[in-house]
């Protein structure tokens, strides 16, 4: 038990800011070959997973991130059947993907099996789809997995990774995007978390250029709140292999056979609106 009124704080020194959650107890901490994972019990956000000092998921708000990593891309693709999730070890994105009855297979490749094992133990709501017969959980380097993937077989690649440092650094590289482009079939989509639009503008620009350089014909950003990440505001980048991203299957959203807590057709449209300061010059 921690002292009463203890806080977990993530400091963002480069941007002179910090984010804190009041915590009751540290439930777990371990150093894996890849990173340090800690689990806290917070007073108001439920459980919290932290990797290398950075907040990953909390019970209270993870639905926003996981829904936005999955549904905008899945409702943009005409018929997504084969999905790969790179990273995503907490399994929340996998759960959202498998809500789509048309998805025939979803393979998740996280480098660190311990993230998934700890999610199963401390975030059971996130791992409810792990036993789905369409799910395959692999523990491997996502960069090497995509490099070795057969060409043209995937409809959607979701990169749900940690920040672009350590094992995730190569997931933000032009070479990785070129491998994704090759692994995708016609109409294939890549969606990747792209950090804070306020704090990491240069990264957003570099990702866009690298994706275009790798051959993706259209690249668009989507924005959503992210209460526990730096600046409280987050983004993802959606890239289409061989055509424009100019619509989504809006009619099927209303008729979806599952519930969401954040995502709907209005949110989808609004997420793609570009703030003035981010418009390309
Ligand atoms: N929502 C989180 C965020 O934006 O901060 C990401 C959550 S998820 C836990 C991130 C996962 O990426 C971690 O489990 C980590 O092990 C995984 N990861 C990092 N580098 C990887 C790589 N090269 N291949 C596969 N998984 C990787």
UniProtKB/TrEMBL annotation:
List the pathway annotation: Amine and polyamine biosynthesis; spermidine biosynthesis; spermidine from putrescine: step 1/1
What positions does the domain PABS occupy? 5-241
What Enzyme Commission number(s) does the record list for this chain? 2.5.1.16
The answer to whether the entry has keyword Transferase is yes
Q: Which GO terms describe its cellular component?
A: cytosol
What highest taxon heads this organism's lineage?
Bacteria
Positions annotated to bind S-methyl-5'-thioadenosine: 35, 110, 141-142, 167
Task: Give a GO biological-process term.
Answer: spermidine biosynthetic process
Pfam families from the UniProt entry: Spermine_synt_N (PF17284), Spermine_synth (PF01564)
Active site as annotated: 160 (proton acceptor)
- Keywords of the record: Polyamine biosynthesis, Spermidine biosynthesis, Transferase
What SUPFAM superfamilies does this protein's entry cite? S-adenosyl-L-methionine-dependent methyltransferases
State any single GO MF term: spermidine synthase activity
UniProt keyword annotation of Nuclease present = no
Q: What does this protein do?
A: Catalyzes the irreversible transfer of a propylamine group from the amino donor S-adenosylmethioninamine (decarboxy-AdoMet) to putrescine (1,4-diaminobutane) to yield spermidine.
Protein name stated in the entry: Polyamine aminopropyltransferase
Source organism of the structure: Thioflavicoccus mobilis 8321
Designated gene of the protein: speE
């Amino acid at each position: 038990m921690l002292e009463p009124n203890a806080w977990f704080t993530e400091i963002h020194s480069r941007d002179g800011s910090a984010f804190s959650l009041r915590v009751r107890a540290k439930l777990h901490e371990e150093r894996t070959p890849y990173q340090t994972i800690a689990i806290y019990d917070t007073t108001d956000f439920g459980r919290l997973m932290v990797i290398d000092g950075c907040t990953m998921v909390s019970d209270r708000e993870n639905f926003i991130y996981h829904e936005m990593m999955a549904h905008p891309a899945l409702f943009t693709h005409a018929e997504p059947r084969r999905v790969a999730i790179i990273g995503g070890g907490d399994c929340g994105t996998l759960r959202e993907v498998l809500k789509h009855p048309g998805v025939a297979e979803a393979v998740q490749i996280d480098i660190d099996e311990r993230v998934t094992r700890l999610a199963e133990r401390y975030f059971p709501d996130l791992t409810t789809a792990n036993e789905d017969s369409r799910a395959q959980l692999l523990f491997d380097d996502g960069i090497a997995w995509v490099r070795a993937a057969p060409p043209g077989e995937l409809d959607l690649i979701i990169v749900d990774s940690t920040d672009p440092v350590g094992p995730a650094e190569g997931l933000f590289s032009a070479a990785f995007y070129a491998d994704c482009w090759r692994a995708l079939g016609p109409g294939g989509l890549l969606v990747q978390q792209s950090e804070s639009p306020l704090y990491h503008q240069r990264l957003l620009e570099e990702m866009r250029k690298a994706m275009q350089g790798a051959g993706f014909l259209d690249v668009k950003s989507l924005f959503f709140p992210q209460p526990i990440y730096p600046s409280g505001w987050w983004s993802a980048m959606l890239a289409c292999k061989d055509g424009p991203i100019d619509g989504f299957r809006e009619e099927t959203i209303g008729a979806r056979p599952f519930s969401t807590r954040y995502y709907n057709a209005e949110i989808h449209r609004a997420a793609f609106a570009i703030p003035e300061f981010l418009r390309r010059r």
